[in-house]
Amino acid sequence: MKKKGIKIIISLILFVLGLVINFNNELINNIIFAIAYIIVGFEILKKAVRNITRGKVFDENFLMSVATIGAFAIGQFPEAVAVMLFYQVGELFQSYAVDKSRKSISSLMDIRPDFANVERNGEIKKVDPDEVNIGEIIVVKPGEKIPLDGTIVEGDSTIDTKALTGESLPQDVAEGSQVLNGCINLTGFIKIKVTKEYGESTVSKILDLVENASSKKSQSENFITKFARYYTPIVVIIAVFLAIIPPLVIEGATFSDWIYRALSFLVVSCPCALVISIPLSFFGGIGGASKMGILIKGSNYLEQLANTEIMVFDKTGTLTEGVFEVQKVKSIDISEDELLKITAYAENYSNHPISLSVKKAYAKDIDEKQIQDTEELSGRGVVAKIDNKKVLVGNEKLMKENQIKFEKCKDIGTVLYVAIDEKYAGYIVISDKIKKDSKNAIEELKKNNVKLTVMLTGDRKAVGEHVAEELGIDRVYTELLPDGKVRKVESLLKEKSEKGKLAFVGDGINDAPVLALADIGIAMGGLGSDAAIEAADIVLMTDEPSKIVNAINLSRRTMKIVKENIIFAIFIKILVLVLSAIGISTMWEAVFADVGVSIIAILNALRVLRVKNN
Amino acid sequence: MKCKFKIKGLDCANCAAELERALNKVDGVKNATISFMTERLELEYDEENKEEILKNAKKVIKREEPDVTIEEI
Predict the structure, then answer these.
(1) Is B73 in CB contact (< 8 Å) with chain A?
(2) Does A153 reside within a domain?
(3) Model confidence at A593: pLDDT above 70
(4) What is the band of A613 on the pLDDT scale with cuts at 50, 70, 90?
(5) Minimal Cα–Cα distance from B53 to chain A, Å?
(6) How many domains does chain B have?
(7) Any residues with CB less than 8 A from the CB of A20 and at least 6 apart, and which?
(8) Amino acid B53: pLDDT
(9) Three-state DSSP class for A562?
């Protein structure tokens, strides 16, 4: 690239010299132009000869060579040099831009760890992360990148997950915490037991995914390569006719004039500028997204996301935390703490999420000696004997069956009624918490032209409808089994317009069939979940629904730039072609339509890379 | 079966698109995709005669773009 730059500068100096100084002898000026031309154009001429022997008539090098040699032939020396010179400037700029965006993507994906400090036979050895086996202990000092996925066995620290999630707030970790490679250990000295080989680790998966993303091509990319495939031959053929027919047919028309016009055509016929700016934009978009913790598996998905019309959400774990929490404790005659304690004791042997949340809320050790007997009654609750008192914990049905007078609770969520020795003692409300940013995300989606928001849940009607109302979701379907979700998405797919897309957002754990069925499957909480990464088209590394809004905005921005480039480039090219044909524009405008357009389109595409990291 | 290659020395995006088209015409190649930006070639081809198919694909690359080299990853 440097060598090419030097050649361009020397040639440019000679070119300006030839233009400005009048040597009183045209021959000297022309020799200077010829030298400038050879310096900058020799490579192109060489390639043109090589390609033409292989029958590639519509090769760029060949077209440029013909255009410039033709210009020399009809005596347009400065034009000939300018075309070649600026063509090379354009090429240089193009490779610079491509190089720059490749680099900026790989630096943004600079999460690949370089080494691991592994403990072997009591010694610490610095090895390649590839060479560490599952079960080995690695040591990570403050400031170092965690090289492999694993569990902390010693020490505590805070870690920076920004490279993976886009989240700038550091996370506290301690013994027993799962940590992922690619995170940076900030404060403490930690020892980690490796749970995955490097090839299977989070970083490897992410890098692989982003690198493969550009092989799934978008419609825009396919359109532009197809366009280029017909555009160049057509323009070249018109150029040939333009050079030959008018001088023969029109009276007074000269060959040199019409050949000049034809040569301008050849300059404008080069397709590359058009073709490069589109994949460059998508590449930038995908890179920018991964910076925000959004992994997009293909340019096609980035393109489709801009046309999202229906957004379908799973409830639990997507819009809500998926963690049940005791929201309210209401006791009668005894203290609230006492009620919670008795309930926790009664639920002690159950592993149901509801029971676990009660025990979590109680948060004290349970003395199992006080529990004399427990029996789970399916669909109703638990009967237990605690401290020689008969305790009933369960739903309305259980209370009614035991003829216990109770006060009906109107709160939304799962309600546990408690009776002690056949006497009503109060109730506990447990529910799933709505995520902080869910409401905002739904509002933003509506502002961003998503026409319909839908929530699917296996949860009970009252709970589902309450959450949907709270969040402002348009439609909600409750009490669905997994195959019911599939059928609902199938019927929703029929409701969208032809161009519109349906996106489904889930946590990727048991909604793989729905993720696959939707036009765009989005899984959240991808960090550490292989299932989510496998099943979805777009993976949100964190579990914030607001990231979906970011992704849609980015997709719209990318598509806007892509469309601008396509329309701008084609418009200018056709305009210059028409003006050249009728003799208004010169070869200089043709150079602009080729190189100028290419540079502007690339600069425009590079804008995608500049995403704000919030 | 699917194979991925690092593809180096491509001049421009249009050349990449043309090479991709040429590779898709090779007998036994089910699908070939080239990403100019990431310099990757993905080849999907029949399991049978894979040696033969790969040899032909390399020949096509040599013919279309003599400066291009590929390396399996």
Answers:
(1) no
(2) yes
(3) yes
(4) very low
(5) 21
(6) 1
(7) none
(8) 87
(9) helix
pLDDT of A109 strictly over 70:
no
pLDDT tens by residue, A316-368: 888 888 778 888 888 888 888 889 999 999 888 887 778 888 888 888 888 88
- Please give the Cα distance from A361 to A416 (Å, whole number): 14
**Number of domains into which chain A is organized:** 3
Helical residues (DSSP H) of A250-317, grouped into ranges: 255-268, 272-291, 299-305
**Taking CB atoms and an 8 Å cutoff, what residues of chain B touch A279?**
13, 35-37
Domain's final residue, options A370, A401, A433: A433
Stretch A474-500: mean pLDDT, rounded? 89
Active site residue A365: no
Phi, psi of A523 (to 5 degrees): -110, 140
Q: What is the pTM of this model?
A: 0.80
- Mean per-residue pLDDT of chain A: 86
- Residues of chain A neighbouring B40 (CB-CB closer than 8 A): 211-212, 214-215
CATH number for the domain that contains residue B61: 3.30.70.100
User: What is the percent of chain A where pLDDT is above 70?
Assistant: 97
**Residue recorded with tokens 């959450």:** A467
Q: Which among B17, B34, B63 has the least Cβ separation from residue A54?
A: B63
Q: Which domain holds residue B52?
A: 2-72
CB contacts of B38 in chain A (<8 Å) are 102, 211, 214-215, 283
Q: At what angle do helices A255-268 and A219-249 cross, to 10 degrees?
A: 180
Dihedral sign from CA coordinates of A456, A462, A463, A468: positive
Rounded average pLDDT over A71-91: 88
Most B CBs within 10 A among A100, A209, A225, A235, hence the mutation to make, goes to A225
Which domain-ending residue is among A537, A556, A575? A556
Q: Which domain holds residue A468?
A: 294-320+435-556
**DSSP-derived 3-state class of residue B39:** coil
Which residue among A59, A149, A314, A507 is the active-site one? Answer: A314
Residue in chain A lying closest to B4 (CA)? A212
Tokens read off for B8:
């180096």
For helices A77-108 and A272-291, what crossing angle results, to 10°?
20
Q: 3-class DSSP state for residue A123? A: strand
Tokens of A353: 């999420």
